[in-house]
Amino acid sequence: MNYSKQRELILDTLKRNAVHPTAEKLFEIIKNEQPDSNIGIATVYRNLNKMANSGTIKRISGLEDAEHFDHNTYTHYHFMCEKCHRVFDIDAKIAPDIIENTKNRTGFIINSYDIVLHGICNECQTMQH
Ligand SMILES: [Zn+2]
Ligand SMILES: [Zn+2]
Question: How far is the CA of 128 from the centre of ligand 1 (A)?
Answer without folding.
Answer: 10
